[in-house]
Specification:
single chain, alpha/beta, Rossmann fold, four-stranded parallel β-sheet, globular
Length: 178
């Protein structure tokens, strides 16, 4: 997720002031800092952990006063640290669901980069260049429709609601015990 996002960052027009919002674990790992330093030397990175965003998304709280409060608070902190940020990386797969709220609290000129819209085309390109990997990941596939089974250790109804939001289509899961 990180490398394709940073490769994309290196290709776009930016002033070199980059913000990143992510989970505390991602921020603590310094993974983006390391990759950006390698691929975009001289860029200034402002990282900020947003511990409340994932629970908000996972509980279906995508746009309400509480969500608005936490998103505004975190983005204000990022922009106070570097007012010249012109690109914000959403460093968690949950965060694109908050884009309407995020957009409200950023200056118009700040570009928002979401990982999914970058990583998916990168993966497709990789699999086209490496058909042997594509076949290993999809054994016996010859333009067959694949079947997806969703299993969860959580309550299926809860999982289904969250997964349906992410997938943009109805998801039905079954509960399993590990």
């Amino acid at each position: 997720m990180i490398r394709p996002t940073v490769e994309h960052l290196a290709e776009i027009d930016t002033n070199g002031h980059i913000g990143i919002v992510a989970t505390p674990g991602t921020i603590a790992s310094h993974s983006y800092d390391i990759e950006i330093a390698k691929m975009c030397p001289g860029y200034r990175l402002t990282s900020h952990a947003c511990p409340m965003w994932v629970p908000l998304v996972e509980n279906g709280q995508l746009d309400n006063p509480g969500t608005d409060y936490f998103v505004r608070k975190d983005l204000d902190a990022v922009m106070r640290e570097d007012e010249e940020i012109d690109t914000l990386i959403l460093g968690c797969t949950h965060y694109p669901l908050l884009v309407p709220v995020i957009r409200r609290h950023l200056p118009e000129y700040v570009r928002i980069l979401t990982q999914g819209s970058i990583v998916a085309p990168s993966l497709i390109d990789y699999l086209r260049r490496h058909p042997e990997m594509d076949m290993r990941l999809s054994p016996g596939r010859q333009d067959m429709a694949c079947r997806i089974t969703y299993m969860t250790t959580d309550l299926p109804e809860r999982f289904d609601a969250i997964a349906s939001t992410f997938m943009g289509a109805q998801v039905r899961s079954r509960r399993v015990t590990l």
